[in-house]
Every structure is written in structure tokens, then in C-alpha cells.
Write a structure and sequence with these properties.
This protein has 14 helices and 4 strands. The protein is mainly alpha-helical. It is elongated, with a radius of gyration of 28 Å. Bound molecules: zinc ion (ZN).
């Protein structure tokens, strides 16, 4: 998503640079022309949204956040979605600098995370939020409770895979039955194997085969009571109880487990590495605007474009 946005913005930014100076010239002559301003309301904005957008200034990052969050509620055109991002990135950027606005910046990071379709981007932006405001998850207690619940379920889903590979069928079935676990595994079904060929149902069937009926999960058959002799490798499970996987599938499951159990405290580098993306992104709030390819030096919206504010005419003493 970020990459797509970057492409769009790369196209738009040069235009902005070209238009801004033109606008600056116009503004000098047309600063008292409300009729002309009214005409320039873009079709994807209401008049009140347009007026608020036009009055934003970087000293009040909360204005960008509030408008961005409102647009986020009705993202019914690509232009509104793009504008929402531009507002939230600016709220984050202008808010991250002053300590009194860091909560605004953290909220903007969380809102950006909610817009992101890539799990990696969501994690990254939530890490940014946690750095800006360690208690930012408190902003929405119900959301936080849901997240904690889903983190518990994700950890249990990871445990399920480990139990299954260890041949601990009873424990694995308990894990699969725990709240939220099946939904998480189904959501990640494509990642249960290297090429998406293993389903949750396959794993459930597999779980019923364990523990091994012959060796009770030990992998060896001891000689009958009272008899001497060497223990034998269990002929049913070949001495290796549990789900057998090809190496690529095993690798896929380990990567999935790493993602399922990762949290804010895990370094971003290791998370991104498991997803095969590069380079690793540091959850430094200063990196957000560049990642979205948004030029935050253009602080104000005038006549359909982000631009720099015109210096006010020096007041006469
Ligand atoms: Zn066995």
C-alpha cells in the first residue's frame, strides 16, 4: 500500500512543486476573493471539509488529525483516501516534534496503521505509535482489549503448530479449540505451507492422529515388561511422532509462527526479515513521511494543493 501510494505521490509531487509558485503569485493578488475560493472546492470534499482543510496550520497538528479521522470514516473516493493519508502523515510529522502533541502524532500513526492493508506496514506504524506515546494503545480501551485478546489467540495458534509437529495431538486439539485460534489460522491459511497447499482442516485431521497409538509419543517401543532387549524405533511414527513437513513447508510455518508471536517489543528488523522485504525499516517517527513520499514541508492546503504558506505582509508599526 505504501509503495502504491509512493508511486501516486511521486507523480503528484512534481505537479505540486510546479503549481505552488503559480499559486503563490495568484494569492498575492486574489487574497480577498471569496467567490473564487468557493469555486475551487474539489468535488470529493464538502464545503465545510474544504474550509477546515484550508484553515489548517502546522502549529495545530490536531486539526490535521481530526479532519483526517473524519475523512477516514467515509473514504468513498481515491482522492479522499489520498487526502486522508496526507493529513494523517502531516499530523504525525507536526505532532512528533513538540512533546505536547505527541499523543496526536501517535493517534495519527494508529489511524495510518488502520488504513494499511499490509500487515508489515501496520506493525511498523503501530511501533511508531508506541515510540511516540507508549500508552497510545490506551486511546481506545475496547480496541486495546481486542488486540490483547487477538495476541493471546495468535500465540496459541503458533503453539498449536508446534504441538502438532511434536505429535502432542491432545494438546494441539485443545489449542485449536481455544477462542479465536481457528479464525487466526484460517486467516493465515496460505502461510501454513510454502505454496498454500495445507489447510486448517488438514491440520485438524492430522491432530487426531496423535499421540502415536503405538509409542504414546515417545518414538520408541520398549521391550515388553519382564523382557530384556533393546528398545525399538516405533514402526508407526518411525520414531518421530508428529506432523511431517517438507523443508519448505516447515520453513513457511516457522515464519508464520514468528509473525504470530511478534509484538511491539520485537525489533522491526527481524519482523520485516521474516517477510522477505528489505530494507528493514526503523520505526523512527521521522521515517514515516519519507516512507509515504509526502513532502511535509508543504504545510498548508491552498487552492487544491499542498504548498508553503505565503509570508504574511509585515505589519506596519
Ligand atoms: Zn510412535
Amino acid at each position: 500500500m505504501i509503495r502504491v501510494l509512493a508511486n501516486i505521490t511521486t507523480v503528484l509531487l512534481p505537479l505540486t512543486f510546479v503549481i505552488a509558485p503559480l499559486w503563490a503569485q495568484q494569492a498575492a493578488t486574489e487574497s480577498v476573493a471569496p467567490a473564487a475560493v468557493a469555486k475551487s472546492i474539489p468535488p470529493f470534499l464538502s464545503e465545510s471539509e474544504f474550509n477546515r482543510l484550508s484553515s489548517l496550520n502546522p502549529a495545530d497538528p490536531n486539526g490535521y488529525l481530526e479532519l483526517g479521522e473524519e475523512l477516514l470514516d467515509s473514504p468513498d473516493s481515491p482522492e479522499r483516501v489520498a487526502l486522508t493519508r496526507e493529513l494523517l502523515v502531516r499530523a504525525l510529522e507536526y505532532g512528533r516534534i513538540g512533546s505536547e502533541h505527541r499523543r496526536v502524532a501517535a493517534s495519527a500513526a494508529i489511524a495510518l496503521a488502520s488504513m494499511s492493508k499490509q500487515e508489515g506496514d501496520r506493525l511498523w506504524l503501530r511501533s511508531v505509535a508506541a515510540i511516540l506515546e507508549p500508552s497510545s494503545a490506551d486511546l481506545a480501551p475496547s480496541r486495546r482489549a481486542r488486540e490483547q485478546e487477538s495476541q493471546v489467540a495468535a500465540a496459541r495458534a503458533s503453539l498449536f503448530l508446534t504441538q502438532l509437529r511434536a505429535g502432542a495431538g491432545i494438546e494441539a486439539r485443545d489449542s485449536l479449540a481455544a477462542k479465536g485460534v481457528r479464525q487466526i489460522l484460517e486467516a493465515h491459511e496460505r502461510e501454513l505451507s510454502a505454496s498454500g497447499t495445507i489447510s486448517v482442516q488438514d491440520l485438524e485431521i492430522e491432530s487426531r492422529k496423535w499421540p502415536c497409538t503405538d509409542c504414546a509419543g515417545t518414538g520408541i517401543i520398549a521391550p515388553p515388561k519382564g523382557q530384556r532387549g533393546p528398545a525399538k524405533i516405533c514402526p508407526v511414527c518411525d520414531g518421530q511422532p508428529g506432523l511431517k513437513l517438507r523443508v519448505p513447508d516447515f520453513g513457511a510455518q516457522l515464519r508464520l509462527q514468528r509473525r504470530l508471536t511478534s509484538s511491539f517489543s520485537e525489533s522491526w528488523g527481524s519482523v520485516i526479515a521474516t517477510q522477505g522485504a528489505s530494507p528493514a525499516r526503523d520505526p523512527d517517527p521521522a521515517n514515516v513521511a519519507p516512507a509515504f513520499a509526502i513532502d511535509v514541508r508543504l504545510t498548508v492546503w491552498r487552492d487544491g494543493n499542498w504548498t508553503t504558506p505565503t509570508p504574511e505582509a509585515p505589519s506596519k508599526p
